[in-house]
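Notebook, p. 212. Picked up where the previous page left off. The plan for this session was modest: take the two constructs that came back from the sequencing core last week, fold each one, and keep the raw output in the notebook itself so nobody has to go hunting through shared drives later. Recording the first one now, exactly as returned: residue sequence, then the structure token string.
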Amino acid sequence: MKAQAFTLEGVMASLLLLIVVYTFFQSSLVISPMWSELSDAQLRLLAQDTLKILDNPDKVDGNYINATLQGMISQLNSSFEPNPEFLYALDRVTFPADYRLELYWVEGGGINGTAIVDNDPTPEAVGGSRFVVIEKDDLSSDSPFKNNPEISDPVVFEVRLILWRP
């Protein structure tokens, strides 16, 4: 009788150890990232940080700073070309990654958008986005958003930055 109890206790202990070891290895496989996922996470974080750095709603002498998201959007005309100061700042912050910059807004009950910097991303590209709110009075006189009655005031923009490794 005693031998059977010890045998049963040994079997139960080995099953318990087997469950613990299986759980340990199973959870470590789920938690540990693959190398490609790690670089994606780094690029996604870089995209979010870049947009956060370039987001500055402060004004100097009544105008937004040129090298900010607000400064770039407020100076856009119908050609949708960003100012050189903004592009320089964007290049410096995102280096060495390549990027695509897109702008979206609500117009007439639908969402419109355009590529501000129209580079072709690779399949491994990741992105980040940020919302920017600008009053119509702060937009340049030749802005396609200023005198458009289909666009609300203030204008809410979504800026998407897509990054990839060259």
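Okay, moving on. Second construct, recorded in the same format:
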Amino acid sequence: MKKDQFVIACLEREDDANIVLPMARHCANRLGKGIIVLNVSADGDNDWITRFGHPYIGLRGDWKTAIDGLPTAFGGVLAVTALNREAPRSSITNPNTLLRTFADCKIAYLVTSCQLPGTSNQWPQATFFSLDHRRESKEKLIWASYMVRFFGSKLNVVTPDYRDAGFREKLRNNLQFTQKMYRSLGVDYTTEIIPASNFHSPDLTLVNSSLLTPESSLLVAITTDKRDRDLGDLVAGPQELRLLKQSTVPILFLNQRDDLYVLCD
């Protein structure tokens, strides 16, 4: 069957293939999509991308331009990329550079420093996302539902244990919306409560808890809207940067955009 939508395996170096390609293949198989191996280099020296047995695109130029064009130029529905906290700033696998490169990405992007476990047909066994008092993203709920519907994952919705009555009411509204949406999709989920923090987002509290395990878990997270960044973000960096520096599990990021691409409703 001809594929017109693709999981894009973003390989900066040949060595990244050991981490990126197994996850990209797994996601493509589960979602019923094709796979494209993508490399972008300043000098166009990327002949090595022909060695993996997949359709490939080797570009001369900059990664940011290529990532911005993933859904329109390449038919991408999901990008997979490696994370290397020790990489220099010139590398897209460096946390800071990765986030700048994908800042305007219109599709979901899976970021990982972990190799897919041997029982890849069962990964991820557990998918997590947090709900708090802020306005929620429908796209985050939809992508989390894909993990249940296509990957057979167990879905866990994590909420802070607020003491403030106003925050509790807003959280209750978000939970009601989630319940209504998942009931219409036939998606089951469980809820977990974590301590509320005045200094950390629920996602940061979650990745430092014992709920997630590197071998089987996935976190679905929304990046920070630039208009919502506060003094803490200026000092410590945005939430997504701190997530990349602290998390031991793969993270499926979604940017807050009005034109974000999803597979289906």
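Notes on construct two before I forget. The chain has a mean pLDDT of 89.
Flagging for discussion at group meeting.
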